[in-house]
Design a protein that fits this description.
This protein is mainly β. It has two domains: 4-208, Jelly Rolls (Sandwich); 217-494, 6 Propeller (Neuraminidase), CATH 2.120.10.30. It is 2% helix and 49% strand. The protein has a ten-stranded mixed beta sheet, with no helix packed on it. Strand 27 (328-333) and strand 28 form a beta hairpin. It is elongated, with a radius of gyration of 25 Å.
Length: 495
């Protein structure tokens, strides 16, 4: 059989990579970290495939243990392969990986695509030496036919393809800043220090990528994150911009795209469906489900003059206008469903207002100079949380529903914090954090941001995720009904 790498190179008019009798297109191989059984690689020049056998406890946490076949490179690059396992027994999380890592140290910064024998396929990364590993899982139930890891600058992302398909972006993307040359290759970990496991890599390609200043195609990805573990999963990815998930009690996600309101199962098991909103077709990212699930409050720009608030049946139908004045942006509905809380600009200032869900006169709750935004009721109805720039930076505040007892919740910690979302059990708030180089009264798109969480009992703040996003990532409450997960949107420009 002819070497498929050689065939592909000849067709493309490319120079053939130097071949090593033991490691093929790679320079060397060896165990990384502490392993009980020495690993090995067997390269078959006839098929261009690699049979990698390894021990190793895991590639996770703050240190790795696996067998790595590698070459040293610099610049932008992709690595792709078909991956299969010699046996499907043993540890269900044994993994075969396409990897780019800073060094051969066990605790090195890295990004990889990890295929697990159980079917889990994920993008994993350690952003710096000795840091914890994080992952974004792809929305697949079996290892795809072909996997690809791409590095462009600090951006790492996962593409995949089934039989007969070209590789396409799968949703998972993370950022790892590598300094100078790095190691790129294939690896295997048994996920059990006492075991030895084997994976086969075929159709292996390493493709240097030319530098470019083009932005590429924008992709939006709906993700969910388990707050206890910070494991992330890509639910749905598509070209263009969609925004702002609400997590409904029936475990579907409500979001906006192209001026419409859509729903998708929170596990990504079906495609989105559009909710009929009649003539109201310029819906923005400020929408909230009613507590009983029968209605959705929406903010829409169809009428001249700016955003107004409407209520529409969750099953679809004709919206009913609540706020005749514009602009008005909905963020909260009281637990009894009788009151809407929103941000509105009146007389040149943005403040927090409430209005009866049945319609009527609006009530102004904040009067401080500067922007007050994002009002949301706590589940027990005792507070309205909101974000305010009155301290000089954007921070989370709260007040009683009548506007009294306004107090700052998040400290001035060198960041701007937007859109406090209270967990259904009332114990935590999650919010989007911008760096101080973003103006305090702005929450633009296409920024490096964090999703952070505060425990309300001790006011301790933890980082749940770092991502490329901002406007549209988590404008409205997206906690799961059991308070265990959050949903948000990340963005990526793909060449």
């Amino acid at each position: 059989m002819r070497n498929p790498i050689a065939c592909a190179a000849l067709v493309a008019g490319l120079a053939l990579p130097a071949m090593n009798a033991q490691t093929g297109i790679f320079e060397s191989s060896g165990d990384i970290g502490t392993v009980l059984h020495k690993g090995s690689v067997a390269y078959d020049p006839a098929t261009g495939s690699y049979r990698v056998t390894a021990s190793g406890e895991n590639v996770w946490g703050t240190a790795d243990a696996f067998f790595f076949v590698w070459k040293k490179m610099s610049g932008d690059v992709s690595i792709s392969a078909d991956i299969s396992f010699a046996t499907k027994t043993g540890e269900e999380h044994k993994k075969a990986m396409l990897m780019i890592r800073q060094s051969l140290d066990a605790d090195s910064a890295y990004g990889d695509v990890a295929a697990h024998v159980a079917g889990l396929t994920s993008l994993q990364s350690r952003e710096s030496k000795g840091a914890a590993t994080h992952e974004v899982q792809a929305n697949v139930s079996a290892v795809p036919k072909h996997l690809e890891l791409t590095k462009r600058g600090d951006d790492f992302y996962l593409s995949l393809a089934d039989e007969g398909e070209a590789p396409h972006f799968a949703g998972p993307a993370m950022k790892v800043a590598l300094d100078g040359p790095f190691y790129i290759g294939i690896g295997v970990s048994a996920h059990n220090k006492d075991n030895i496991e084997t994976a086969i890599f075929s159709n292996v390609r390493i493709t240097p990528l030319a530098p470019t200043t083009a932005k590429g195609t924008l992709y939006s990805t709906m993700e969910t994150i388990t707050v206890a573990s910070t494991d992330r999963r890509a639910v749905y990815s598509a070209t263009g911009r969609f925004e702002a998930p609400n997590w409904l009690k029936d475990n579907t996600l409500l979001f906006n795209a192209g001026g419409h309101l859509l729903r998708i199962p929170a596990d990504g098991s079906a495609k989105p469906v559009t909710i009929d909103t009649g003539a109201i077709v310029r819906i923005n990212n400020d929408h909230v489900p009613a507590p009983d699930g029968t209605m959705a409050g929406i903010s829409d720009n169809t009428e001249p003059g700016g955003s107004r608030i409407y209520l529409v049946p969750m099953a679809g139908g004709t919206p009913r206008k609540i706020t005749p004045k514009a602009p008005s942006y909905l963020h909260g509905i009281s637990p009894d469903g009788k009151t809407l809380a929103y941000c509105a600009q009146r007389n040149g200032n943005f403040d927090v207002y409430t209005i009866p869900a049945a319609g009527g006169e609006e009530t102004r709750l904040t009067t401080a100079e500067g922007l007050d935004d994002g009002p949301e009721f706590s589940p027990d109805g005792r507070y309205i949380y909101f974000n305010s720039v009155r301290s000089g930076s954007m921070q989370i505040w709260r007040m009683k529903p009548d506007g009294s007892e306004q107090e700052q919740v998040t400290p001035d910690d060198g960041f701007h914090n937007w859109f406090a979302h209270v967990s259904p059990d009332g114990t935590r708030i999650a919010f989007v954090t911008f760096s101080k180089d973003v103006p305090a009264d702005q929450h633009p798109p296409d920024k490096e941001v964090m999703v952070r969480m505060m425990n309300l009992a001790d006011r301790k703040i933890t980082v749940l995720a770092k991502l490329f996003g901002g406007q549209g990532t988590m404008n409205v409450n997206s906690w799961s009904p059991d308070s265990r997960k959050l949903a948000f949107v990340t963005y990526q420009y793909i060449q």
